[in-house]
Amino acid sequence: MSDFLIPKLGTPKITSPYSLSKMVGDLIANYVHEDEFIIYDVHATPQKTITYEKQNLLEKAGPREKIYFDPQKVHAAIVTCGGLCPGINSVIRSIVMTLWHQYGVRHISGIKYGYQGLLSENNFPVVELNPEKVGYIHRMGGTYLGSSRGGGDRVKEIVDTLEKLKISMFFTIGGDGTQKGALAIEEEAKRRSLEMVVVGIPKTIDNDLSYIQKSFGFETAVSKAVEAVSGAHVEAHDAVNGIGLVKLMGRESGFISAYTALGTNDVNFVLVPEVPFDLEGENGLLAHLKKRLLSRNHAVIVVSEGAGQNLLPKTDKFDASGNKKFADIGSFLTDRIKAFFTKEGIEINLKYIDPSYIIRSVPAIPSDSVYCTRLGTNAVHAAMAGKTRMLVSLINNTFVHVPFSLAVSKRNRIDPESPLWRDVVQATGQPALMKN
After folding, report:
1. Concatenated DSSP letters of 147-185
2. Which of 71, 201, 311, 344 is deepest in the core (most CB within 10 A)?
3. Where are the alpha helices (DSSP H) in 297-403?
4. Would you say residue 433 lies in a domain?
């Protein structure tokens, strides 16, 4: 079993200014008690009894009756790192509004351009945040604070700046690299005996953080990807031997591609990093694509950016976040498909669409915006209670606290034997495995 124990700076002794109820049935929302937990693994076997220790249970998120920090002495800071994602501004707004209106915190700073904004040589100004400044930012795409990759490994310099600013709460909005950096920052702050908590909000458009039921922005990304695929389907359907090829984000996890296929039911082949495939041979993609065109006159292919990398020349380049740079599977497939059908003497009309940067830069759709707001609110509740080295997550439809160490321990990936992939194969009609 996993260890879900959440560290805290000390015993909360201050009565929360956020007035809620301690009674059930009075029609007023209640505080969350420290003994409220849920189990992670909901799978069950009849007549099998499992005993859980406290550390093996997930701590429920939410406001506590007693808090650790005096709101009048709090200096909170918010940073957004990595690539853009729908909903970042909704999270920023939620954190600011909850700190300001529910707890009375008046000293809130925004760090410009990710962890780079905490490095002294960049000299980026710190932004003062308040309800007036963030009131309408959720209607915009991108991030109000700006973002960047890299810098998170310069931990001592970052903590030097946080210490100089007298930050007591540090909210990190980002994905795997951001939260690994946040963990190292928290450890350095602890080594220096700083009274500072570090609380993360999971941002990864690929939905690939572990112990995260769903990362924010994912639903918006899928909804916009569906629009792109629908356009590709029209282009393919209305042409002679039309092929629509759409490349979507998904470096190591193909969730966006899988959900987009299920959301349109117009996709015939989905290629994801988790499921290998061959191009050539009687059970390869090209042979099945030919059969599809001969029988239906059109086809739509959705490919994740990290799919089929074994078929391309390997690269030894990395981005500033330490992510390996992948070769372009979309252009590769375009060239190979055209060459194959030229050799077969079959005329095709292929349209290649890459909507990646459009998808990630748009404002969040309402369902995502709701999720972002609740993530931000619960992050503040955790920080005010003195909880640290954790991020807010949704698991089994419940908001909970998850240690950084578990969230970044491995990538969340599609299980090829899971019901999700089974449904994708059924919806597309593609072979379960295109390997010779």
Report:
1. --S--TT-HHHHHHHHHHTT-SEEEEEESHHHHHHHHHH
2. 201
3. 329-344, 356-361, 366-384
4. no
| Tokens at 253, concatenated | 């996890």
HSE (CB half, 13 Å, CA atoms) of 86? 27
Write out the two tokens for 174.
Answer: 């980002």
Chain length of the chain: 436
Q: Give the CATH number for residue 334.
A: 3.40.50.460
Q: Is the pLDDT of residue 366 over 70?
A: yes
Q: Are residues 185 and 228 in the same domain?
A: no
Q: Which of 3, 160, 206, 328 is catalytic?
A: 206
pLDDT tier for residue 48 given thresholds of 50, 70 and 90: confident
* Residue 321 pLDDT exceeds 60: no
* 41 carries an active-site annotation: no
pTM check: above 0.70: yes
Range of the domain at 374: 14-215+363-407
Share of the chain above pLDDT 70, in %: 98
Same domain, 91 and 144: yes
- The Cα–Cα gap between 182 and 200 comes to 8
One domain, residues 21 and 152:
yes
**Average of pLDDT values for 87-104?**
97
Work out whether the CA dihedral 122, 128, 133, 137 comes out positive or negative: positive
Q: How many domains does the chain have?
A: 2
Quick one: DSSP state of residue 102? I
Nearest to 85 by CA among 369, 400, 403: 369
